[in-house]
Amino acid sequence: MISLKINSREHLLDVEPDMPLLWVLREEAQLRGTKFGCGIGMCGACTVHVDGQAVRSCSYPVSAAAGKSIETIESLGTIDAPHAVQKAWIEHQVPQCGYCQSGMQMAAVALLNDNPQPNDQDIDKAMTNLCRCGTYDRIREAIKSAAREIS
Ligand code: FES
Ligand code: FES
């Protein structure tokens, strides 16, 4: 049994220690906002936070998350009270198909937590997630808007 704290709730789960955190979140905790893309740590669709750091959950064994605080897109905001990043995403109409966007938002929040006023270079360096729809320019502008709102 592995004890996990996910979005401030304790879970006691009977899973193999090397199971990727992504599948624990999606299949055991029923949190389906975190997406499967490549499965090899390249695309970032599966990005969540572990102790505040962005990690690619498809390549992160659940045993490494035991005793740590895991946050998923479901914890970020609500329709009535969206996170500053989500407000900026709406303002800039960022998503196209939307598949990559929960991972993008989690990566953006981790960036802003580390660096509340990122410049273009900081954003390009931190935002290594892939978007097949090519929403990168809107993501960059939305992150700058969120940074203004947070400051
Ligand atoms: S699904 Fe995890 S990085 Fe692509
Ligand atoms: S919005 Fe379609 S993959 Fe990013």
Description:
The chain has 2 domains: 2-75, Roll (Ubiquitin-like (UB roll)); 84-150, DNA polymerase, domain 1, CATH 1.10.150.120. The protein is α+β, with helices and mostly antiparallel strands and 151 residues long. It is built from 6 helices and 5 strands. The mean pLDDT is 97. A 5-stranded mixed sheet has the order 2-1-5-3-4, with helices on both faces. It is globular and about 45 Å long. One FE2/S2 (inorganic) cluster is lined by residues 36-39, 41-46, 56, 58.
Topology:
Elements: E1 2-6, E2 9-13, H1 21-28, E3 47-50, E4 53-56, H2 62-65, E5 69-71, H3 84-91, H4 101-114, H5 120-126, H6 136-150
Parallel strand pairs: 1-5
Antiparallel strand pairs: 1-2, 3-4, 3-5
Helix pairs in contact: 3-6
Bound molecules: FE2/S2 (inorganic) cluster (FES) (2 copies).
